[in-house]
Structure formats: structure tokens, C-alpha cells
Amino acid sequence: MSLVRKNIFVLFLIQGTNYIFPLLTIPYLSRIFGPTGIGALALAQATILYLTLVVDFGFNLTVTRRISIAFEKKNFLEINQLYTQTLIIKFSIFLLVALFMLILCQFVLQLDNIKVLIFIGFISLLGSVLNPIWLFQGIQRMGMLLIPTTLSKLISLVLIFIFVKSSQDLNWAMFFTSLGMFLSAIVSLYYIKQQKLAHFCQINLEKSINLVQESFYIFLSYLGSSVYTTMNTFIMSFFVGLRDIGIYSSADKVVMTAQSLMSPIHQAIFPNLSSFSDKNEYLNKFKKYGLILFSVASLISVSLFFLSKIIVLILFGKEFYESYKILQLLSPLPLIISLGVIFGQWGLIAIGESKILGKIYLIAGLLHLSYIFILLKLDGIYGAAISIVLTESLVSMFLSIFFFKKIKTWGGKT
To answer: For the residues of 257-296, what is the DSSP string, one character each?
Structure first.
């Protein structure tokens, strides 16, 4: 238990650098670029975030789980193979994604208008490819990530305040924002080599294919969920201008930052839940940790709703005043998503039912597409906010139903 608490604490600090440092730049950048400039940045960053989901390919969960089990058994050969396989596969996907985006930007006007920002953002995407956070999670040594993460984000923060001075510096803002993830990845890889946590080795093609197949279902779930999360911004670009995207994305950024407070609990507890000896042990942990996450999420959602005006005015200024209405509409998300984490990642994935998770997210993505266009047409960015809350609610409901159904017939160890 003490190790879990330590990992949660460290992950809180790491998530703090991932979200609080950028949050410190929001008041500065919002006042320099205004809603339109922030909208362009948000659309480019949403594109990069979507591509990050593609190159991650679900490995952050499947590889973490495998490494956790291998580490418990002291199977260091397996850890080395997983380390090598994952980095090679992710880099291969990265190359395919880069080629695809190069072609796509020639045909989609919304992307062509911000293609420079997107390709600058590939620095962050490459950092995501190289950042082996799944290794540190699997061996439950998250503390080693604290220094590289904090230092890299601090460098990005300082560079933004030094070099970004006017509305003409949009490309520099994207560059310095993206730089943090890349620097963090490089330092993390150096740590792994110095501490001899893992090293490159000859890989087995059959095992690599098996890893891709296992991760594919998680990837499908991410792909499905991305339709109503990451892709939402891109879909909006066909119906509203960059200014409205800036208004929406500002509120969305606050919600994402607030949700990040749950990530340390999720990431630290998942490996612990994945390594269990019997059904009763798992269910006891599941109930205890689930109550903790649900309580934290409830507090976050209530705070976002009642403090929405104050948050928007302090962070973004009067030009973004409309964002508070979007923030209120999105405020239930941390609570709703916490249920998805509990019954999805901690539930279905932990007991080896990741296929169900993928199907639910895909169906949810299709359902989302059936009404988001209508809601966008009727109520613009407010319709978009309503659509994502509705979809996330449906996802959490389906995940809970299937989890309780499976847990009744589940034998114990996966």
C-alpha cells in the first residue's frame, strides 16, 4: 500500500508539470493571441493529440500490465523484449502517421490553414513515441520520471515567456509548448540506460504481433472515444470559426486540467489492480480504490461548476467570458469519466475483457456522430459541449453494465 501511495504522490507531481505549467501560460497567451489565435493553437494541438492516440496504440495500458506481471515474476528478459518491441512499433506507426498527415493537409482546408503549427507539433508527437512512461508504471518506479518531466516543462515555460511577445509569435508558442514532451522523453531514455532498467534486445516477431493484437482492442477503444473527445475540435472547425473554437477549447482545457488530478490515482493503481492472486483480493481493491477515485471526481466536478466564472476571468480574461457557460456544461465530465475509468480500465481491462471496452467505445463514437452535427448546427459550441457529456454518460453506463455482467461469471485470475 505504501508503494501505491508513493506512486500516486509522484504522479500528482508529474501531472502537475504536465498541466499546471501550461496552465500558467494560459493567462499570458490568451491575452496575446485572443480567442482566434488560441483557437488555431487548440485545433493544431487537438490534431497532435489525436495522432498521439494513434501512435500510442493502447500500449500505455497493455504494455504496463504485461511489464507489471513480468516484474512481479522477476522476468527481466520479458521486460527487455517489451521495451524493445514497444519503441520499435510506436516509431514505425509514427513514420506512417507523418506521411499520412503530409498528404491529408493537401486536401483538407482546415488542416492546410494550420499545417505549419501541426508539423511543429510533431516534436511533441515524437516525444510521446519515445517516452517510456509505461515502463516506469509497470515496474512501479514513477519517481524517476519526476526530474525529467519537471525540468523539461520548466524549460518550455521559461522559453514561452522570453520569446513569445506578440500575435506574430504563434509558431514559437507551438514550438515551445511541444518541446517539453520531447525533452522529457530524451532524459527518461537516458535514465533507463544509466539505471539499467531495460535495454534493447533481439525481439520475437510472433510476440510482437501478439502484442499488437492485444493492444488493438485498446486502440479501438481510444479511437472510438477520440471521436467525441479529441476529434470534437476538428469536427467543430467545419461549423464554427477559430474564435468559437478558442472559446470552447479554453473551457475544455480547464476541464482536462481538472481531470488530470485523477490521472495519478488511475495510473498508480492500475498496475496494482492488474497483479492479483484471486477474485476476492481483486474485488476488495476495486471497491476501495473505486470509492477514492469517485470521491475525488465528485469534488472536482462540483468545484468546476460553481467556480466557472472566476476561473475563466482569471485564466483567460474578459475576451473569453463566454467560456464559463461551456465550462458549466462540461463540469460533470470528471465525475462521469471517473466511472468509465473504474468500470473500464480498472474493471474490464484488469480482468482481461478489453475486447468489450473497444466495442463500447466504437459504438459510442458512432452514436456521437449521429447527433453532434445536429447539435452543432442548432446550438454551435454549446451543442458540442452537450453532445460530449451525453456520449460520456452513455459510455460509463455501458461499461458498468458489462462489468457487473462479466464479474458474475468471472473465475478469478486472468
So the answer is: HHHTTTHHHHHHHHHHHHS-SSHHHHHHHHHHHHHHHHHH
Among residues 311, 263, 379, the alpha carbon closest in space to that of 18 is found at: 263
3-state secondary structure of 114: coil
What 8-state DSSP symbol labels residue 348? I
Residue 408 to residue 121: CA distance in whole angstroms:
46
DSSP 161-216: HHH--SGGGHHHHHHHHHHHHHHHHHHHHHHHHHHTS-------HHHHHHHHHHHH
- The three-class DSSP label of residue 158 is helix
| Mean pLDDT of the region 62-73 | 82
User: How many C-alpha atoms does 333 have within 13 Å on its Cβ side?
Assistant: 26
Q: What is the pLDDT of residue 414?
A: 46
CB 39 within 8 A of CB 241: yes
Q: What does pTM read for this prediction?
A: 0.76
CB atoms within 10 A of CB 377: 10
